[in-house]
């Protein structure tokens, strides 16, 4: 489908004119020049009114020769470029083209010797007025001497050939001008340095299998690497040879990384690369164990693998965790991250302690499975079941007593809630032995009433968790959100270390970084009308998280009416 404005619509619209034209150029131009410029600007913004030079002459009541002279006038100021005269084709340039100097007409006679020399350096084409104007503007703006400019042009033709475009020459000249290299002596010294750096850059590009000629930006980067980062040339080439899909930008990024790690010699660089390679290999193995595929492994390394290794987990422990996560249905990196955080907080870091932890979980789940079957439920254990078992055992109930409550709960609409009610009643009445269980337990009205409360608590928790999970699923669909969210979660560790070290400067910087990440995350979530807080369960009672208990004691909300 193609959509466009009608001519009638365009007629009722507006033509934008920059204020700089009115304040700086209009006062020095003739009336005809202003008319021609504005009408041409109108045609640029309304292509449906395309006109030939004959039609423009008729409309403006100006002869064709005058119109051509007006465009040439504006070309000398750098406001337009005459692409061709037959047929007439004019390209309008931004008025900021001469932003470094007040607009003024440059007389070509001033640079007559210069124009002859430049034309001799570029014999394969006739240099246009617009190209000369560009050179004049650069020299006037930056104060580059004509002789120095000729040396710059010669250097460019030596590097790129005589068919080189003038925009590249202008780019190099502006780079020189910005650095104050505007005289013959300064240009000669710089070009001598350029030649040396160019030879090095060619070697760098070759080892990275990049097939192109050195650019001006390459020389600037090399200067940065050798003078600011203090890398030796041979070590830079060594690093470049290690990049699989190399580019000067990637090499720059890697050298900055090496600089931050204080790795300068070949031995230090090799050691760091080997270590980094091992981390990447581990990330791939973990993804494989979880059956996870990602396009960019760097995200996994930065958000997960590096963090887990910094906690003290080794490769064997992490792969063991990954395999156990997969077997338990936790097949996402975020799920494994939660398991790793749980293990870290409980002090299970090495393979032995991690293995023991999962063995305990296995035994616990075996008991929970038995309990569920006794209560008439045929499903796998859930985190909610594990929390209940932990709570009931904290109430000093044995597994035998828990199974007895499960027998009584069998056939009820909400067996787990009913069990919680029975055990709560037994605890309050000091019943901790099978022989002391009252015969009326199965029909106790208080238990039935308590069951209703516990069932409501269970519903509340399930609803809060479900809402959070749905919000997280929506958030993960946002491009780049998980990167920000992962970095935000990872900052808690860094903040904790900073607090322990009492490093106020680092702590302040991290707090600022955290605030910025929160702002980015909230901004990304805003279109979905959710916040970061919506990604975690919001329980009705913040004290007990809708369990009815704080530790082994009833929560204040326990006996309140549940809405």
- Categorize the overall geometry: elongated
Q: What string, H for helix and E for strand, traces the elements in order?
A: HHHHHEEHHHHHHHHHHHHHHHHHHHEE
- What is the percentage of strand-forming residues? under 5%
Major sheet: 2 strands, antiparallel
Distance from first to last alpha carbon: 55 Å
Taking pLDDT < 50 over at least 5 consecutive residues as the criterion, the unreliable ranges are 1-7, 97-103, 442-447
Radius of gyration, in Å, reads: 38 Å
In total, the number of strands is 4
Q: What is the residue-averaged pLDDT?
A: 82
Q: Order of strands in the sheet with the most strands?
A: 1-2
Residues in helix, %: 55-70%
Which structural class do the helices and strands define?
A: mainly alpha
Number of helices: 24
Descriptive account of the structure:
This protein has helices spanning 7-11, 19-25, 31-45, 53-60, 64-76, 112-121, 129-142, 146-160, 166-178, 184-207, 216-228, 233-241, 248-260, 266-290, 297-310, 315-327, 333-346, 351-374, 383-394, 399-409, 415-428, 445-476, 481-501, 504-525; strands at 80-85, 88-92, 549-550, 553-554. By secondary structure, the protein is mostly helical. The chain has a two-stranded antiparallel sheet. Strands 3-4 form a two-stranded antiparallel ribbon. Strand 1 and strand 2 form a beta hairpin. Helix 15 (297-310) packs parallel to helix 23 and helix 16 (315-327) packs across helix 17. It is elongated and about 115 Å long. The two termini are 55 Å apart.
